Protein: DUF3667 domain-containing protein
Amino acid sequence: MNCKNCQTPQRTDYKYCPACGAKVVVHRLTFRNLTYDITERYFNLDNTFIQTLVQLLLHPEQVIDAYVQGVRRKYLNPISHLGIALTLSGISIFIMQKTLDPEVFMAYGGQLPKETAVKLYDAIYDFSTLFFILYIPVFALAGYLTFNRKNYLLSEYLIAYIYIMAQWSILSFPFTVTTLIISAESYLTLSWIMLFAMVAYCIFSMQRIHRYKAGGLVLRTSLFFALAVIGYFMIVILFYIVMFLTGTLEIQDFAPKQ
Structure:
């Protein structure tokens, strides 16, 4: 028979194609086979996803430095890890839309008119994935300028922060969903806590890679945090610029309440 992926002739007792490495599939796609394939692919303890998840939590330097140095098969590649993170993020946003009352969000709007707060509420959902992706180059540049004892290239820092941000999104998913289901009104408070925790995880990962002494770590952490805050506000400003350019927001939307 021939391989179904590359059409290379192979023996019937092969489990994997010797040419392309694809698994030989001879059974129809039943629910039982589908369930087995999913659990084997993502939840097997020998699986690269599980290994990547655990190592990025405990020893992020092993995954990141290995990928930078050319190891490509031992851990899940950063784009696949990011894909899983974005999928879970989409689930979080769906649950948020179902459970989070707009009135809770508008309470943070201060003196904004109700109609303006609702516009911002909807826009944040629409652009939440973009915000998450924009954090990656912002944090990567901040890390490149402050934590770089190993002389990584900026492109290598982008890879590092794809791993770091994807990992953080995956780790925070159960906390986010649990909060939204049990106490949705507490979510916005939690989001600020999670934001600072995300910065802490970034610093932890950088320190694991570069190993600075205490004095150097404090100085570089301060600089990293300052650059990250500047980048965050730049993203917020960009968000408002896009809102005005697309006509979603107008100047009169920010007129004081009567």
Notes: Residues 114-146 form the longest helix (33 residues). Residues 1-43 form one domain.
